[in-house]
Design goal:
The two termini are 35 Å apart. Helix content is 34%, strand content 31%. The relative contact order is 0.20. A 9-stranded mixed sheet has the order 2-3-1-4-9-5-8-6-7. The chain is built from 9 helices and 9 strands. It folds into 2 domains: 10-100 and 190-225, Periplasmic binding protein-like II (D-Maltodextrin-Binding Protein, domain 2, 3-Layer(aba) Sandwich); 101-188, Periplasmic binding protein-like II (D-Maltodextrin-Binding Protein, domain 2), CATH 3.40.190.10. It is α/β, with parallel strands linked by helices and 226 residues long. The structure holds adenosine monophosphate. Adenosine monophosphate binds next to strand 5, strand 8 and helix 7.
Length: 226
């Protein structure tokens, strides 16, 4: 934990896009309004209406790292990102049930995945999610060669780089547009609140009401009350 912040200052790590947009109502429920829009501002540290709370904008996969090292006190990250990170140094008190999607295996339409698996074929699988893919195929006893990609996984089967991909699916539109089909559901994904373990002790008084507001607001959303 870096010793650069006073105990009354809180830093929240968020990524742009769905997580930022869907965290805003939870912050509002805690009385916190972010006063600049990350889509139009170039600032990486955004002020809020509370001089003691600031939001940093980082890549989704970097959120756990900022929180782990205490550069942010808390953050919001997808289950996919947390599984890949490993969760070391992080307390994960609340599933916020936001930015929901699923992690799936997908192949080109016409590729008989079930039969390839039955025959014990060695499959080439392209993914950004190495840990999740490795565990999934190991548990099924499927032999795979994993190919690490950083984006546009959907392209890999179309140009012969891989037989299958492991990727996030939300509406399924991206798969359909690229003639791919989902052939295995690996896990449901949603975003969770993560808190630095030292901050949880040292800043409990400041953090606790915010965590409670987040929890109540996310329950309200789930029940369709928000
Ligand atoms: P869709 O076309 O709605 O199924 O969305 C699929 C594309 O959006 C894929 O490229 C995914 O990697 C990405 N995606 C979907 N849901 C999420 C999410 N919750 N977080 C990050 N990326 C996502």
């Amino acid at each position: 934990m870096m010793d650069t912040q006073s105990n009354s200052q809180l830093i929240l790590a968020l990524s742009k896009g769905r997580i930022f947009d869907e965290t805003l109502p939870l912050l509002e429920a805690a009385g916190i309004t972010v006063t600049e829009n990350p889509e139009t501002s170039r600032k990486l540290i955004l002020p809020t209406n509370d001089p003691n709370v600031r939001v940093i904008i980082v890549r989704a996969s970097d959120v756990p790292t900022y929180v782990q090292y205490g550069a942010a006190d808390f953050g919001v990250a997808g289950k996919d990102v947390l599984q890949e990170h490993g969760g070391e140094g992080l307390y994960q008190p609340i599933d916020l049930e936001i930015a929901k999607c699923r992690m799936s295996v997908a192949v080109q339409a016409g590729f008989d995945y079930a039969s390839a698996v039955r025959q014990g074929a060695r499959l080439r699988v392209a993914t950004k999610y190495f840990q999740i893919a490795r565990e999934h195929f190991a548990a099924k006893g499927v032999h795979v060669d994993l190919i690490k990609l950083y984006g546009s996984m959907e392209l890999a089967p179309l140009v012969g780089l891989a037989d299958a991909i492991v990727d996030l699916v939300s509406t399924g539109n991206t798969l359909r547009a690229n003639n791919l089909v989902e052939c295995e559901h690996i896990m449901d994904i949603s975003s969770r609140l993560v808190v630095n373990q030292a901050a949880l002790k040292l800043k409990r008084e400041r953090l606790q009401p915010i965590l409670e507001a987040f929890e109540n607001a996310s329950k309200g959303t789930q029940a369709g009350l928000a």
